[in-house]
């Protein structure tokens, strides 16, 4: 049986962002393992079984080993790992949550990540996102399921300064969103005349 090679939906796109200034940097993140967790049990019990404190505050994320645990709803979280294979993460999480009445589903191929950094990132995001991204409101550890340029995304605040954000977008919309972000960042690529 032939082995299928996994190709990133934004393969080759990285060269298009090299022209962007330091005030707006867009980086294509490599694939990471992702598991959607649904729980019928108290999150504290699952946290103990998983070895990570699942966030219970709406619209937040916490570091979880080499990845993150993102709150998706009162009984739903997204767990990621940069070091485990998708099937390993799913098996480990499933073993921890099934005895508690929960479920774990590998969703690694569903979304890809982009990282936006720089002093003007909030300005770029504000062009297509209606949530308040000021660091007082959306600081490190905040997350939101929202739309960005009409694409459904999960937005993660990675710094308290508002200059570092992660964006998880469905693989099928990655090209569209990447083009939208480049267009939105265009005005920040030129230096204003003196």
Automatic annotation (TrEMBL):
The record, for SUPFAM superfamilies, names: Folate-binding domain
Pfam families to which the protein is assigned, alphabetical: SoxG
Positions the record marks as coiled coil are none
Against Gene3D superfamilies, the record matches this protein to:
Heterotetrameric sarcosine oxidase, Probable tRNA modification gtpase trme, domain 1
Name the source's superkingdom: Bacteria
Identify this protein by name. Sarcosine oxidase subunit gamma
What organism does the record attribute this protein to?
Geodermatophilus obscurus
């Amino acid at each position: 049986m032939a082995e299928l090679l996994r190709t990133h939906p934004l393969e080759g796109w990285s060269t298009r962002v090299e022209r962007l200034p330091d005030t707006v940097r867009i980086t294509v993140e490599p694939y990471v393992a992702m598991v959607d967790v649904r729980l019928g049990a108290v999150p504290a019990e699952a946290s103990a079984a998983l070895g990570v404190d699942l966030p219970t505050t709406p619209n937040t994320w916490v570091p979880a080993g080499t990845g993150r645990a993102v709150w998706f709803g009162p009984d739903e979280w997204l767990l990621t790992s940069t070091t485990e294979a998708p099937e390993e993460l799913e098996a480990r999480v499933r073993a921890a949550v099934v005895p508690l009445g929960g479920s774990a589903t590998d969703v690694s191929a569903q979304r890809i990540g982009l990282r936006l950094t720089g002093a003007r990132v909030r300005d770029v995001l504000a062009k297509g996102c209606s949530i308040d991204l000021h660091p007082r409101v959306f600081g490190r550890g905040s997350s939101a399921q929202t739309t960005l340029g009409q694409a459904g995304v999960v937005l993660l605040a990675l710094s308290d300064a508002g200059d570092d954000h992660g964006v998880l977008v469905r693989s099928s919309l990655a090209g569209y969103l990447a083009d939208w972000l480049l267009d939105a960042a265009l005005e920040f690529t030129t230096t204003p005349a003196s």
